[in-house]
Design the sequence.
């Protein structure tokens, strides 16, 4: 079924078209939700909220201005970010920050040769604190700038940078741990 | 060997287009949520399926009960036919076999066998006549004895309240009656077929039918009495009356006495026999009705509308605000349910296990106060020290800044947002009740008073609850990961008002009350929630 047909059917509230939409896009959208969430339950909530947002914002989509899939992914990314923002305010916590204008001294540009699976990498990201995970996703995978990230998350640009660097450091440690484990297994 | 990749490259390549299989039930949860929000049309396909299923099940049940009903009717007809055939085989030759007064007459004849015996030879009659009379009396007595013997046998054989006794008695009684009629024929014009009495004591003609034999014979007796009185002179000379039949040979006083007794006896017997017949009919009706009511079991099918109420209680004072807010935020709505019960009677008592399916609906409404802190104004406060390098004369030759200290200044602009949260809560419950009750019957109506207990299983939840530890809400769509128990116990009280359409079907109204004994939340949840439920149901009972 073509996207415009799907959109028209869903606008009419058709269950059949919803089924089609879900079967076509739910897998990739759930992948986004998993990246931003710490566990599957949270990811499921983000998926549900995302679909509700899609159904309430049909009118904002213009098929001439971009792909439907891209529009969907954008909505789900925004929904995941909104969830983080609500959680942050609800828990009334601010991430501990250590800010500096300069890059940390231990910053490196280490490269890896090992092929990690999607699940392994996803698992590493899910182990990050909420703020680090969100910033890392937005900066690395969504390719947003720190200024944009800062405005979306309600933080400063410096905070965004620092959180990114810290997340990177933690991920590097996890990758090294995985590599060590893998080497032990080989032996 | 793969190319070396930086961390960013590694994650981007692997996860930017990664997909994953959503968990089971996610699609249906999303669909339900969209329907609740009005963004998707209600899915009628499943509803249609259930309507079809219900319709087919109802049709199947009705067909089965109709077949049972027809079979039952056939059996009853066969039984009735067999009984009728059995009745017809009995020696009921007289067409007046059903006449009650025949029986009375016969009974009276047996009891008052003295009537012929009581005849005393106190008139001037020939010994021969007296001998003849006593001989006839003896013969009559013998006949009575024989008949009573036969009657006794008959009674013994068929002493089961059926009409066989009456038939046989009637046949014997009719024989006696005919004898009597023949004897009395000359005195009055009695048509043995229709007992049409031409002349009564006053000389008026009246017509009596078979049921008025008492009148007939009483009237006849009076006639005879009058005649006897008129024939006083003939008492001493009974030969003058010899043409009137041998019964006139009795002495006047004894004749009068016996005839009066006879009339009184018939009247009394008619009353007694009619009462006996009534009793028989009543007992027959009772036995039939008892047969009717001896059902093995009954099946109740019903639907009910329910009004629920929730009872909250906090575990300690810390959660009192949660208890108060929970009461305010939830508004119950009318719910519905349906059920099936099997009623097992034991005399006037009954036990009724069953199974009910119902759902509890309520509206949830709460406002979350969300604190928004804007920290965009936060900044570092750096302290630098200017270092001058002086020569030997103390003249600065060089200078540079040294970063000596920095302090983070946090600035937060606080604002409070009010976020309304509205949702519809729904819990589905499968209940297994056990009722015990007592039945009162009043004609076509029955009233049952019952009480019992039940265990209820919470099968699905789709609810929004207040989060116990902060001012927020939590949505639960899965009972596993929710604070709800899987089951809870309740006590029940109720009544049935039944209208019996026929032996097979009854319709009923069923008001009932259910009181939850335990909380539907788990023990570790800081507040408890009990459910009370008042319902009014209506249904159909099928008797088997």
Sequence:
């Amino acid at each position: 079924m073509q996207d415009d047909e799907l959109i028209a059917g869903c606008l009419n509230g058709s269950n059949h078209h919803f089924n089609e939409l879900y079967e076509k896009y739910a897998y990739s959208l759930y992948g986004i939700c998993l990246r931003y969430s710490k566990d599957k339950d949270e990811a499921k909530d983000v998926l549900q909220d995302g679909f509700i947002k899609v159904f309430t914002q049909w009118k904002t989509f213009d098929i001439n201005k971009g792909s439907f899939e891209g529009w969907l992914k954008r909505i789900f990314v925004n929904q995941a970010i909104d969830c983080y923002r609500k959680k942050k305010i609800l828990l009334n916590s601010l991430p501990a920050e250590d800010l500096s204008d300069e890059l940390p001294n231990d910053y490196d540009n280490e490269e890896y040769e090992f092929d990690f699976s999607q699940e392994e990498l996803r698992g590493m990201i899910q182990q990050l604190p909420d703020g680090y995970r969100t910033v890392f996703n937005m900066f690395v995978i969504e390719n947003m700038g720190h200024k944009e990230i800062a405005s979306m998350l309600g933080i400063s640009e410096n905070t965004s940078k620092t959180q990114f660097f810290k997340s990177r450091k933690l991920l590097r440690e996890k990758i090294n741990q995985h590599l060590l484990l893998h080497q032990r297994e080989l032996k | 060997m793969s190319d070396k990749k930086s961390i960013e490259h590694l994650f981007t390549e692997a996860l930017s287009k990664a997909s994953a299989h959503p968990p089971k039930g996610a699609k249906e949860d999303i669909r339900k949520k969209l329907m609740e929000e009005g963004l998707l049309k209600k899915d009628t396909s499943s509803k249609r399926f259930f309507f079809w299923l219900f319709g087919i099940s109802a049709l199947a049940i009705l067909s089965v009960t109709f077949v049972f009903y027809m079979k039952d009717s056939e059996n009853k007809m066969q039984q009735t036919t067999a009984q009728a055939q059995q009745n017809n085989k009995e020696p009921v030759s007289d067409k007046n076999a059903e006449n009650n007064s025949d029986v009375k007459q016969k009974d009276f004849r047996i009891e008052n066998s003295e009537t012929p015996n009581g005849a005393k030879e106190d008139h001037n009659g020939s010994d021969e006549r007296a001998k003849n009379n006593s001989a006839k009396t003896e013969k009559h007595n013998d006949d009575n004895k024989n008949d009573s013997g036969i009657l006794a046998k008959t009674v013994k054989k068929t002493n089961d309240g059926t009409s066989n006794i009456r038939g046989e008695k009637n046949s014997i009684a009719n024989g006696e009656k005919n004898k009597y009629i023949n004897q009395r024929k000359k005195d009055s014009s009695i048509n043995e077929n229709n007992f049409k009495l031409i002349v009564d004591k006053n000389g008026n003609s009246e017509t009596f039918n078979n049921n008025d034999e008492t009148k007939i014979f009483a009237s006849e007796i009076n006639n005879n009495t009058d005649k006897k009185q008129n024939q006083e002179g003939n008492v001493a000379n009974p030969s003058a009356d010899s043409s009137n039949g041998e019964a006139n040979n009795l002495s006047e006083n004894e004749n009068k006495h016996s005839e009066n007794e006879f009339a009184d006896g018939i009247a009394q017997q008619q009353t007694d026999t009619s009462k006996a017949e009534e009793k028989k009919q009543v007992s027959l009706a009772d036995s039939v009705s008892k047969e009717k009511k001896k059902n093995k079991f009954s099946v109740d099918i019903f639907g009910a509308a329910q009004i629920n109420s929730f009872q909250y209680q906090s575990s300690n004072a810390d959660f009192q605000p949660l208890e108060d807010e929970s009461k305010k935020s939830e508004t119950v709505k009318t719910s519905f349910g349906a059920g099936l019960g099997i009623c097992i009677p034991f005399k006037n008592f009954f036990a009724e296990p069953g199974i009910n399916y119902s759902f509890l609906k309520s509206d949830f409404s709460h406002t979350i106060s969300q604190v928004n802190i804007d920290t965009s104004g936060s900044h570092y406060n750096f302290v630098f020290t200017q270092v001058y390098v002086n020569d030997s004369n103390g003249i600065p030759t060089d200078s540079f800044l040294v970063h000596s200290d920095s302090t983070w200044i946090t600035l937060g602009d606080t604002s409070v947002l009010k976020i309304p949260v509205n949702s519809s809560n729904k819990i589905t419950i499968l209940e297994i009740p056990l009722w015990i009750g007592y039945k009162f019957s009043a004609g076509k109506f029955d009233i049952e008073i019952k009480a019992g207990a039940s265990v209820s299983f919470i099968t699905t939840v789709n609810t929004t609850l207040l989060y116990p530890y902060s001012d927020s809400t939590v949505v639960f769509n899965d009972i596993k990961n929710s604070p709800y128990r899987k089951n809870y116990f309740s006590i029940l009280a109720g009544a049935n008002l039944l209208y019996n359409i026929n032996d097979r079907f009854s319709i009923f109204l069923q008001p009932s009350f259910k009181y939850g004994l335990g909380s539907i939340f788990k023990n570790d949840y800081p507040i408890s929630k009990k459910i009370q439920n008042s319902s009014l149901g209506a249904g159909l009972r099928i008797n088997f």
About this structure: The mean pLDDT of chain A is 83.
